[in-house]
Structure formats: structure tokens, C-alpha cells
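Q: Fold this one first, please.
A: Sequence and structure below.
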Amino acid sequence: MDMPPRPNPELIDNDDPEADEAWFAKARPAKEMLADMMGDAASKEMLKLKHGRPPSTAPKEHVNIRLDADIVQSFKLTGDGWQTRLNNALREWLSAHPM
């Protein structure tokens, strides 16, 4: 039967010990504790649900467009942000070709 490995004394942190069953038994939800620690206003702000990014003042429009594979591949090869660069290339073409 294998014995469990001994803890490495170099890795034991007495100031921040590993959470055990006793620690979890004493734990309380943030909504019960924050008001006493931070005040009502701050706790309400911290506990407010936030979903994703803030709304944009100029949101992008989702479109489906079919482009030649070599065009898409060329932009993708430029790395992250390729869709923004494609958008900028279209904007540049529009400014060069006014209606």
C-alpha cells in the first residue's frame, strides 16, 4: 500500500492555510457579509449583476456575407483583430468611392 506523499515544508503557508471543512462551515455568502464590511451602498454596487460589456453607443450590425476564401484567409493570417481590419478596409474603400 502506497503512503501519501509528505507535504513539502517549503510549500506550507501558515498565513494562508488550505481551506478545510471547518473553514467552509464558518463561511458565509458575500450578501450577508459585505454590508458590514463595506457599507450598504458599496455592497449593493458590488453585488449588482453585470452581464457582459456595457452597451455600445455605435453597435456593430451582424451580417452574413460570402467572400472568396483567399480574401478571408489573407485577413485571418494577419492574426487577432482580422475582422476589424476587414471592416476598416471596407470603410477605406467607401471613402475612396463616395456614392
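Q: Good. Now the second chain.
A: Here it is, same layout.
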Amino acid sequence: MFKKFLILAWEGLKVAVISFAIIIPVRYFLIQPFYVKGMSMESSFRDHEYLIIDEISYRFRPIERGEVVVFRYPLNPQEYFIKRIIGLPGESVQVKDSKVIVYNSQYPGGLVLVENYLDPNTPTYSSSDTKIDLGTDEYFVMGDNRTGSKDSRSFGPVNKSFITGRVFLRGWPFNRATVFNDPVDYSASSN
């Protein structure tokens, strides 16, 4: 009887060790759960939704405009924010007349982003209509709830080193479960 208990205990220990050997690297290097707090991304993401963050794909490909990312808040790295990528490294971003305009080598005169994911009549304000120039590893991020979001309009660009990963899956609530593979396609018009 004692021998059967030892065999069972040994088998249980092996299962636990193998499970931890698989789960810990996946949790810390590949994917991470994230719980949405607040309304800064409504109506795309709502308060109390449960997301899975892809932490690995940005090691193999660049971050793209329109992707939703989770990052450490630059003014308090203990906090995590969820926002949408608007401006990419080397670009300039301007919020003017309730429009988001991106300036880059392809659009030196400016590209007005068509943001179909925003609720209709959502105003996009900024305390200044000054262009924000992004460095080689900097991104301009904005929440989809433009009137209720603390984002790059207030705290400035986010360095790539602060970005944890992109939103890959909304798992909860079940009726809103979604896999996010592609960034937003901005049908754009030049300024």
C-alpha cells in the first residue's frame, strides 16, 4: 500500500514539474493574460474584459499602425495601459480639427486617418495642434474613447521597450470572444 502511494506521489510530482516547465515559459515569454480596467478603449474593448496578449510576434516583425497593444505606463511603469498604435517610429502625428494626421516619407503633406472603429461623432481633441515627432523607437498611442482616454496626447510617445505585446484574443465575455490577427486597415485620404 505504501509502495503504491510512493509511485502515485512520484507520478504526480513528475506531472507537476513537466507542467511548470511548459506553463512558466509560455506565461512569461509567449502570452500573458490581461484584464481591461476602465473605459479608455470603448467601444472596442470594455471594462472587465479578459484578453490574451501575444508577447512574441514583435520579436519577429514590426509593430503596425492600428494594432492594439498593452504597455507599461511611461510615468509609472507599475501600471499597464491598453491603447491603439497611431504613429510609428520616425513619423509625426498631429491632432487638428478633430482629425488625426500622420506625416511620414510616403505622406509628407499628411495622411488623415479614417478611423472606422470609433463610434460615430466621436471627437478627437488635443490640448495643442502641434506635431509630435517620434524617435526611432517611439510610438504614438491613443484610446478609442477619445474623450475618456489618457494617452500620448497627454503623456507623450511610448518607447518600444515599454510595449508588452499586442492584443491577440478577447476570451471574456464569451459573447464578445474575438481573435485579433490583422491591424486596422486605414482607408486614408491625404491632407
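Q: Anything worth noting on the second one?
A: The radius of gyration is 21 Å.
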